[in-house]
Amino acid sequence: MSIRMNLALAAAVSVSAVFGADGFLRVKGHDVVDAKGEKFVIRGTNLGHWLNPEGYMFGFDKCSSPHFIDEMFKQLVGPVETRKFWKAFKDNYITEADIAFVAATGSNTVRLPLHYKLFTDEDYLDLTGPGDGFKRVDDVIGWCRKHSLRVILDMHDCPGGQTGSNIDDSHGNAWLFECEESQREFCDIWRKIAKRYANEPVVFGYDLMNEPISHELKDKDLYNSRIEAVQKAAVKAIREVDKKHIVILGGAQWNSNFEPFKDFTFDSNMMYQCHHYDFGNPKLEDWKVKRHADFRDRANVPMYMGEWGHNDIVWYRDMVAAMDKYNIGWTMWPLKMPGDSCWFGFPYPDGWKETIVKFAESDRSSYKAIYANRPDRAKALELMRQYVENCKAANCLARKEYIKALGLKVPPAK
Using one digit for the tens of pLDDT, what is the confidence trace for 296-333? Predict the structure, then answer.
């Protein structure tokens, strides 16, 4: 037997031992179960900011979405150095060491936010081409297989934009729900992803669109009336190539409004996803979690809390208790970021706010303004390099109080 065959056999045995007889999870009533019929309760975190950079994790306000951030960095240090920065950022922000850290907490799942441009020739965040997205996903799947974690593939940024805000790198509207061409591209990309991972049991399932339709949009009621049909079209595309994986549908208005959904039986292996943030309110109101369980009961399929966080320790404990009470699995947001309110924190470089953030928030509405407000290029390049260095797993610190509040284990210091 060849070395290649031996390695393949060993991998198959490993997957079977960890993930069950056939490895795939499925929906059964209110629960997700494995091949043996045993209940699987999602516990984990989000790999946010990595493949869909968010302005607030750089300390930015105006530069809140990937294309705004990218443009600002190009104004700051030029396109070549910006490309080098994104390459270093993508190579280092999430690595196997981060996945090992998640596994050591006792978690069983990571949610991987993805920009649709990772799977097209539009990926400007290092210009490595349309294969880069699959390379990144393949890496995460390999690390998660090694450390016995599941991966939820989350399309955080859809063609045309599904939220109309910075969350999806949009152009100020949820154009996905206006444009049939964007909807076809949305379905085509999901078909492509599902075809590649159809036989991969490490993949938990496909999270179709993150936080669709901002509550601030003028046409939100019209878009709400279209949300189920657009997601059903994506499910149909996926089922052309993949009959095995769970599909996850997100509610309108930041994954909080499920009233637009009427058909709960069009697919036999689907579930819904809610999100809940309560910025500035440290007291959890039980009804805010219960309402999602009530919808789950009507639909008779599982409900999952894909994002929650950015609050105090008491609120975290209360959230976990409420989700346990209502049989809702979860992935907290995020794994890592500068500061706390995460699992794995790191500091901004000294001078980052005074130099990089100051330029990002300055007037850059004209070339004259850019020239006037741009700081020293060498200093900016060093700060960008240091940000990448700081975010490496070896330089991050476990936020023990947050991890403990979730009922998870704090990995031992190395």
Answer: 999 999 999 999 999 999 999 999 999 999 999 999 99
- pTM surpassing 0.90? yes
HSE-CB of 138 using CA atoms within 13 angstroms: 8
Distance from C-alpha of 113 to C-alpha of 46, rounded to nearest angstrom: 7
Q: How far is CA 132 from CA 51, 98, 127, 254, 388, in A?
A: 11, 20, 9, 28, 19
DSSP state of 257: B
Q: How far is CA 175 from CA 47, 49, 204, 222, 309, in A?
A: 26, 23, 28, 12, 28
Percent of the chain exceeding pLDDT 70 equals: 93
The β-bridge partners of 206 are: 153, 247
Give the Å distances, CA to CA, from 396 to 25, 45, 351, 405.
33, 16, 19, 19
Please give the structure tokens belonging to residue 58. Answer: 């750089």
Distance from the first to the final alpha carbon of the chain: 39
Tell me how far apart the alpha carbons of residues 262 and 245 are, in angstroms, rounded to a whole number. Answer: 22
